[in-house]
Amino acid sequence: MSVEDLSQRIENALNKALARATVSGPPLLAGAFTHSVFPAGQRIRPRLTLSVALACGDDKPMISAAAAAAIELLHCASLVHDDMPCFDNAAMRRGRSSVHAAYGEALALLAGDGLIVLAFETAALTAVADPLRAASLSMIIARAVGMPNGIVAGQGWESETAPDLVLYQRAKTGSLFAGAAMAGAAAAGHVADPWGMLGYRLGEAYQVADDIRDVMCSEKDIGKPVGQDEALGRPNTVHELGVRGAARKLVELVEDAAESVPDCIGAIALKAQIRAQASRFLPKEAAQHAA
After folding, report:
1. Cβ atoms 235, 208 nearer than 8 A
2. What are the DSSP E strand ranges found in the chain?
3. Residues 6+ apart with CB under 8 A from 253
4. Residue 194 DSSP class
């Protein structure tokens, strides 16, 4: 299945979920929901969910599409909260106003909370097709988001005076990547746990790339404020390893991720896809340092 086909499945599932949430109720909050999710970002996490599901056979596409949508809704919720004044105080996201800048802090808080609830509803509705897979999906996304090791914990590490870089990155970024990979396997009826390592390694690679972008790119290039890690005193791989060290670490993590793909009918194709797509992680400004 092409990248375009994957993207269309994701957008269709997200539109379906948002339609349920915004068909009635407070119009401004409905607008904040839509602003949070559309237009599309890179959709890296839900693409991982569908790619893993396809590698495992994807025998029930309704479940895998819902799983991908749930993962992306959780990611969007995390961005809404991350941008708020109590955290990053970022006025831009994806090249336009962040949700709190466009709708105010109160509606941004509610939109983030509501998207989390909508993600669990989206997973729960798959019970009509397979109750056991629906239950597995709910547990996977709960652990990817909550305490002690999910993205909530990752956000919490930012409030510690001396956070451990590995634990911080594993929770803040890796946990949802791991959840995305595991959700894809569970949606296809496979044991989910063996897929966690793939997600964690891709998540760490993406975080390293994000650290590089924060140091080397402009706000115009990435559609959000840069220099945030230094300004807020947060851990950053470039500050620890330098640009060359960070770029090489990213390349190594991508290769480790590809090699960690468990045995499945689509393993060879998935490994090739990971190596091809992950090249997009490394900003062109840092690519020369990876050689």
Report:
1. no
2. 92-93, 96-97
3. 201, 202, 204, 205, 208
4. G
Q: For the range 61-65, what are the long-range contacts, defined as Cβ-Cβ under 8 Å and sequence gap of 24 or more?
A: 61/9, 62/126, 62/129, 63/126, 63/129, 63/130, 63/133, 63/134, 63/137, 63/187, 63/188, 64/184, 64/187, 64/188, 65/9, 65/10, 65/12, 65/13
- The answer, as to whether pTM is greater than 0.85, is yes
Structure-token pair, residue 103: 């709708």
Q: What are 137-177's pLDDT values in tens digits?
A: 999 999 999 999 999 999 999 889 888 888 988 999 999 99
Residue pair 133/60 in contact by the 8 Å Cβ criterion: yes
DSSP, residue by residue, 248-289: HHHHHHHHHHHHTPPS-TTHHHHHHHHHHHHTTTS-HHHHGG
Architecture per CATH, domain 3-290, reads as Orthogonal Bundle (1.10)
The Cα–Cα gap between 272 and 141 comes to: 26
